[in-house]
C-alpha cells in the first residue's frame, strides 16, 4: 500500500490506496475447490460441541490456505481465500441458473449458454442443488391461489 496526498479545497488530505491483488490462476482455483471439498464437513457443517468447534473450523481454513499457497505464485490470506470462494459460489449459481433458464426457452434449438465446467460442477455438488433449483415439493409463497375477497 502506498500513501497518496490529494489536494482538496486547498487542503492536503492523506489517503491510503490499496493495491489490487493478483488474479487467481486456474491451478489455484482447482486447489481451492479440491481443498474445500475435502474439508467441507469442518468448514460448512454444524458445530457439534467439543468434537467440532470454531477452532477446528479455523484450522480447516488454514489447511485450505496452505493447499492454495502450495501452488500459488503469490501468498494468499484466509480472507482472500474466503472471499474468492464466496465469489466462485455466486458466479457458479448465476451460471447454472442462466443455463437452466436457457433450456426452458420457447422456440427449441440448442442451448445458447455454456454448460458448467468440471470445477463448477464440483462446487454445485457440495453446495447443493437446492440453492439453485429450490426445495423439491416446496410451496411457492408468491403463487396466486384461490379467489381474492
UniProtKB/TrEMBL annotation:
InterPro entries: Myb_DNA-bind_5
Pfam families: Myb_DNA-bind_5
Keywords associated with the record: Transcription, Transcription regulation
Segments for region (Disordered): 89-115
One term under GO cellular component: nucleus
Domain Myb/SANT-like DNA-binding: 20-96
Highest taxon of the lineage: Eukaryota
Subunit (UniProt): Self-associates forming complexes of several hundred monomers.
PANTHER family registered for this protein in UniProt: AGAP001331-PA-RELATED, REGULATORY PROTEIN ZESTE
Function: Involved in transvection phenomena (= synapsis-dependent gene expression), where the synaptic pairing of chromosomes carrying genes with which zeste interacts influences the expression of these genes. Zeste binds to DNA and stimulates transcription from a nearby promoter.
The protein's name: Regulatory protein zeste
Amino acid at each position: 500500500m502506498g500513501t497518496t496526498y490529494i489536494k482538496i479545497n486547498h487542503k492536503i488530505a492523506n489517503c491510503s490506496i490499496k493495491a489490487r491483488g493478483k488474479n487467481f490462476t486456474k491451478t489455484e482455483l482447482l486447489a481451492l475447490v479440491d481443498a474445500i471439498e475435502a474439508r467441507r464437513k469442518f468448514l460448512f457443517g454444524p458445530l457439534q460441541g467439543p468434537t467440532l468447534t470454531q477452532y477446528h473450523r479455523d484450522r480447516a481454513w488454514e489447511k485450505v490456505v496452505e493447499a492454495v499457497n502450495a501452488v500459488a505464485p503469490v501468498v494468499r490470506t484466509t480472507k482472500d481465500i474466503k472471499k474468492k470462494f464466496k465469489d466462485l459460489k455466486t458466479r457458479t449459481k448465476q451460471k447454472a441458473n442462466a443455463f437452466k433458464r436457457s433450456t426452458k426457452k420457447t422456440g427449441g434449438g440448442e442451448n445458447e449458454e455454456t454448460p458448467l465446467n468440471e470445477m463448477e460442477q464440483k462446487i454445485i455438488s457440495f453446495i447443493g442443488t437446492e440453492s439453485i433449483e429450490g426445495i423439491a415439493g416446496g410451496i411457492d409463497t408468491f403463487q396466486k391461489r384461490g379467489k381474492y375477497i
